[in-house]
Amino acid sequence: MTTTLVVLAALAAIGVLARLQLSHVRRERRERGSLFDDAGHLLDAARVHREGLGYPVLTGTYRGHPVRLEPVVEALALRKLPVLWLLVTQHRELDVGAPLDILTRPSGTEFFSPNAGFAHELERPAGFPSHVRIASPDPAAAPAPGALEFLAPLLHDPRTKDVLLTAGGVRVVRRLAEGAQGPYRTARRADFGPVQIRPDGLRELLDTVSGIGDLLAVGRVEPT
Fold first, then answer.
1. Residue 35 in this model has a pLDDT that exceeds 80
2. What is the pLDDT of residues 137-194, one digit of tens each?
3. Do 209 and 160 meet the contact criterion of CB atoms below 8 Å apart?
4. Please, how many CA atoms are within 13 Å of residue 165, restricted to the half-sphere of its CB?
5. Phi, psi values for residue 128, rounded to 5°
6. Considering the entire predicted model, what is its pTM?
C-alpha cells in the first residue's frame, strides 16, 4: 500500500510539473510572438517569420530599401546576464570597397559581429567613445573612420552594440532587454519577460540606419 501511494504521489507531482511547463511554454510563445505587434506597420510589405518558440523576424521595406529585423539572444558570457539584441539590416548598394565594423565594449562573445575576425584595427576618431574597436579586413578599401564621425551620437547611445558597413548595406545591433537574474542563476534560462518594440524608438533607429545608407550610397551626388 505504501509503495502504491508513493507511486501515485510521484505521478501526481509529474503531472503538476508537466502542466506548469506547458503553461510556461505557452506564455513564453505568446510573449515572444508579440515583439513587433506595435511596430510592424512602420514597414511596407511587412512580413513576420517565426519558427517554434523563437522570437519572430520582421522583414519588409523602409524608405524604398529592403530591411530585416532579427532578434538574437546572447547567453555565452560567464558572470553576465543574457542579452536580447535586435539586428537591424538595410540591404542596399553602398560605396564601400571593404567591410568596416565598429564594435562597442568588446567582450569576445559577440557571435553576431564579424569584428574579431577582421585583422586590422583602425584608429578611433576623436568624437567616438573610447570603448569601441574599429576593424576591417582591408583598411585601404574600407571607409576612412575619420569620414564616419556622423556615427558618434549612435555609438554614444549605450544601447548600440555594433555597426557594420558593407557593399551590400548597413547593419546596426541594439540592445532590447537584459535577462532576469533569477531564472538564469538557477536554471540557466534566458527569461526577458514581455518585450515589445515601441514604434517611435524603432522609427528613429530605422531613420538612422537609412541615413547612414544615404551618406554612403553608390552614385550619391555631393551637395554644391
1. yes
2. 999 999 999 999 999 999 999 999 999 999 999 999 999 987 656 555 555 556 677 7
3. no
4. 29
5. -80, 155
6. 0.81
As a whole number of angstroms, the distance between CA 19 and CA 156 comes to 46
Residues with Cβ < 8 Å from 134, sequence gap 6 or more?
Answer: 100, 101, 102, 121, 122, 123, 124, 128, 145
Q: Per-domain residue ranges for the chain?
A: 34-216
For 158, the grid coordinates are: 549605450
Three-state DSSP class for residue 115: helix
- Produce one character per residue of 4-43: b if its CB has 16 or more CB atoms within 10 Å, e if not: eeeeeeeeeeeeeeeeeeeeeeeebeebbeebbeebbebb
Distance of CA 219 to the CA centre of its chain: 29
